Every structure is written in C-alpha cells, then in structure tokens.
Amino acid sequence: QKEVEQNSGPLSVPEGAIASLNCTYSDRVSQSFFWYRQYSGKSPELIMSIYSNGDKEDGRFTAQLNKASQYVSLLIRDSQPSDSATYLCATFTGGGNKLTFGTGTQLKVEL
Amino acid sequence: NAGVTQTPKFQVLKTGQSMTLQCAQDMNHNSMYWYRQDPGMGLRLIYYSASEGTTDKGEVPNGYNVSRLNKREFSLRLESAAPSQTSVYFCASSEATKTGGQYFGPGTRLTVT
Questions:
Q1: Under an 8 A CB cutoff, do B45 and A99 touch?
Q2: Among A76, A72, A68, A108, residue whose Cα is nearest residue A91
C-alpha cells in the first residue's frame, strides 16, 4: 500500500463548478497535511496546510481532514480554467522528517 | 524576496560526467531538501538538511552527495552521472522539519545521455 494515495485523474469539471480532490494516507501518526498545486513544467506551490480534523477555508479553497478515516480532501469552489493543474497531497510519514507526496491528481477545468 | 533559487535550469550530461546543482534560499529557513520528480513516481526525497551542519539520506540517495554550505545554500552533486538520473530536480526549504510546508525552487531539468 502506498503511503499517500491519490487518483491520478484527469478530473474534469466545468467552469464555476466545485472540484473535489481526494487523498488517503496509511500512517496513522501523521499530523500535518499539505496540498500543493503544480502547473505543467513548473515547481510545486504550497496552497493549503491542515493539522486538525475538520475544515479549513482559504478563499476558494477548503481543505478537509478526517484522521479517523485517514482521509484528506481539497475542495475548489467556482473552479476557473487557471485552476487546471496537478494537485499533490503530502504528509509527514513514519514520525520522521520525510514529507511523502502522492503522485498527484490532474484537474482540468473546462470552459 | 527571491524565495528558493536553483541553478542551472537545464543541463545535459554524458554518462560518467559530474556536476553540482546549486540551491539557495533567502527566507532564513533552517531546513533544506533535494527531490527528484519522475513521471508516474511523484516527488522522491534524495537528501535533506534539517539544520546547518547536518545532512541525512532520503528515499533515493544512491549516486548523489550533498553539502550544506551555510544556512542559505544546499548543493547536490552527481559524481558520475547515469541515464537513470535523468529527471527534474527540485530544491525546497522549510522553517523546520516535521512542521510546516516546504517551499520549492523552480527546478533543474537534467538529461544524461
């Protein structure tokens, strides 16, 4: 089982819709979770972090964490074509210093 | 602030050649990291430096060496490049390990022929 799993997609949503990106993790002691956005040919950009159960909102982005289910998600409201990118989920694993990344979900926002 | 900078942006090497990838950050971060990103494999940690003066192996350290020159700079060296090291290399930094997100440089696209 991979430590951090994401559906590779592509996930296609129409402009203005809500995009829901999901991530599961295997390490029960993981405490910190991050979402990165990566445009094609560019470096990952940190967009959200979440540390406790529940929702965290930042503009059009909402991160949701459920530690009991080992599940973290990212909702993007009012999706725009500029949101088209690959979204990477990451968490510290093994109680150590290593930030483990999922392989990412490609999001396509269509006009 | 420039954030995290990397040089060079692109590099082509022949098998057996050596080179050093440079990374610098101006955010006064304590921790720095080197990753490689390959299609279908995601980001994999090569080496990291939790603080100035320390370095540790990550997931895929074989064939690489690192130097934490000072708090700002962290270099990655390929002593004898192999085609399997063809990849995109990213440097990242964070305030500390285990907490907080990491901030990435623009990357170096390396091809080994």
A1: yes
A2: A72
Residue located via tokens 């590779």:
A8
Put simply, the answer to whether B102 touches A98 (Cβ < 8 Å) is: no
Provide the 10 A C-beta neighbour count for residue B62. Answer: 9
Among all residues of chain B, which has the CA nearest to that of A88?
B42
Instruction: List pLDDT tens digits, range A61-109.
Output: 999 999 999 999 999 999 999 999 999 999 987 766 788 999 999 999 9
User: Is the Cβ of B39 closer than 8 Å to some Cβ of chain A?
Assistant: no
Question: Cα separation of A47 and A83, whole Å?
Answer: 12
Contact call for A88 and B105, based on CB within 8 A: no
CB B90, CB B37: distance < 8 Å: yes
A34 vs A73: CA distance, rounded Å: 10
